[in-house]
Amino acid sequence: MSTAKKDIKKITTHILQRMKVQEEKIAMLTAYDYSMARIFDAAGIDILLVGDSASNVMAGHETTLPITLDQMIYHAQSVIRAINRAFVVVDLPFGTYQGDSKMALKSAIRIMKESGAHSVKLEGGAEVKDSIKRILSAGIPVMGHLGLTPQSIYKFGTYTVRAKEEAEAQKLIEDAKLLENIGCFGIVLEKIPAKLGKKVSETISIPTIGIGAGPHCDGQVLVSHDLLGITKDFHPRFLRRYLELFDTIKGAVEHYISDVKSVNFPGEKEQY
Ligand code: KIV
C-alpha cells in the first residue's frame, strides 16, 4: 500500500519544489545502510537522509557529536548503492562546517565525490551562513535544519521543544528566510510548536520538512529505527511507531537459539 508517485523516475530538488507548490506532501526517512535503503526506495520514499543520528542508532553513542566525516561517507556510500528513485541528503557531522567556510566546502565536496550523494544538510541559521554560501557556490544543494539542532545539545541542555518563546520563534523565522534567500532547497524543522511550523511553511517558498513540527510542514521525516520500533525506550510525542521490530526480531532470534539447542535446526531438508 504505497501512495508514492512511482511514475517519477528520480526525485530532484526541482521536483521537491514542485511538490510544495502542488501541495503534495514530501515523505523523508533516515537510512544508513544498503539493505534498509533498498526497501525504503522500493516503497517510494521521496528523500533518504543519511542522518548523523547514525551516531545514536548505528554506533550506540548518546549524542550525534562523535560521528566522523569518514563514517558518514561510509554510510552514504552504502545508501547510494541501493537507490533508484530517492533524493539522498547527507548530514555534515559536528565539527566539519562550523566557523570555517573553507573547511565546510571541503567536507561537502568529500561527501559528494566519495559517496555520490545528491546534497548535504547542516544545522543552524545565521551562524553558519558563510559555510552554506560557500558550499552552494560549488553547486552543491544544501538543506538547512532549524529548531532543535542535536549537534548543539550541550548548549540547549535538553531535548525539549524549541522556540516556544516569542524571541526564539522570531529568530527561527528570520533564519528560515535567510536560508531561503541564500539558496537552500529545503529546511528541516525539528521539535517546534505546530503553529510555528505552519507559519514558517507559509512564509517561505522552499519545502519545510518537519519532525515534531506539526502537520502543516510540506513534508515529514522520522528516524527509521524509531518508526520501525528497533529503538525501544524512546517515546517522544511526535513519534508514530509502525512496527515493534525490536520484539519481533528478538522473538525470531530466541526461536532460532531454541532450535539450535534442541537440534531442531538444521532439519532434513536443510542439509546436503
Ligand atoms: O540525523 C537525523 O536523523 C536528523 C533528523 C532528526 C532530521 O537530522
Characterization of this structure:
- The protein has 272 residues and is an alpha/beta fold.
- The chain has helices spanning 13-21, 34-43, 54-57, 69-80, 101-115, 129-137, 153-156, 166-182, 194-203, 224-227, 245-261; strands at residues 26-30, 47-50, 87-91, 119-121, 142-147, 186-190, 208-211, 219-222.
- The chain has an eight-stranded parallel barrel, surrounded by seven helices.
- Helix 2 links the parallel strand 1 and strand 2 (47-50).
- The protein is globular, with a radius of gyration of 20 Å.
- The model has no long low-confidence stretch (mean pLDDT 97).
- 3-methyl-2-oxobutanoic acid binds at residues 30, 49, 51-53, 91, 188, 190, 211, 221, 223.
Q: What is the N-to-C order of secondary-structure elements (H for helix, E for strand)?
A: HEHEHHEHEHEHHEHEEHH
Strand composition percent: 5-15%
> CA-to-CA gap between the ends?
39 Å
Enumerate the strands of the largest sheet in spatial order, edge to edge or round the barrel. 1-2-3-4-5-6-7-8
CATH homology group of the largest domain: Phosphoenolpyruvate-binding domains
> What is the second-level CATH architecture of the largest domain?
Alpha-Beta Barrel
Structural class computed from helices and strand pairing? alpha/beta
Mean pLDDT: 97
How can the largest sheet be summarized? 8 strands, parallel, barrel
The helix fraction, in percent, is 40-55%
